[in-house]
Amino acid sequence: MRRRQQTNPGVPEVNLVPMMDVLMTVLTFFIIISMTLTGQQAAVKVDLPTARLGVKEQQSTDTMIVGMDSQGQILVQGQPVTIDQLAQQMSTYLDTHPNGIIVLKADQKLDYAKVASLLEIMRDIGGDSVSLAVEQKS
């Protein structure tokens, strides 16, 4: 019979198989949790036109109100305008009121894509001085 020869009996052996099992279990746990959380975010239904919290309405004399009625028509001071006319009026307003604020008030029944596209056009013209108005839930 052969005997195993031990070269250094004081050095312990490291067995990596149990450690790899633990690491794979932890990795599987995190993958499953991340997939579960991602799926829940898509299922959340929100009411976009209203908000419970937000910045309080600032009463300023330097405010231009742009409206969008339920038919998707753009209104400035109650008068219907085209996008080109809106761009011209916004540029004129921002030239005369450098610290002015432009607020988009859109009807709640409108398709969100229409509101978002108009808001994008307005932000291209007015930058950070453009905001979207929402009603506060009570």
Structural features, described:
It is a single chain. With 138 residues, the protein is of the alpha/beta class. It has a domain at 59-136: Nucleotidyltransferase, domain 5, CATH 3.30.420. Helices cover 40% and strands 18% of the residues. Helix 2 crosses helix 3. The protein starts with 16 loop residues before the first helix and ends with a strand.
Summarize this structure as a short list of keywords or feature phrases:
18% strand; Nucleotidyltransferase, domain 5; five-stranded mixed beta sheet; 3 helices; 138 residues; alpha/beta
CATH architecture of one domain: 2-Layer Sandwich
Distance between the termini: 89 Å
Task: Characterize the quaternary organization of these chains.
Answer: single chain
Low-confidence stretches: 40-48
Number of helices: 3
CATH-defined topology of one domain: Nucleotidyltransferase, domain 5
Largest sheet: 5 strands, mixed
CATH class of one domain: Alpha Beta
Number of strands: 7
Instruction: Name the structural class.
Output: alpha/beta
Query: What is the overall shape?
Result: rod-shaped
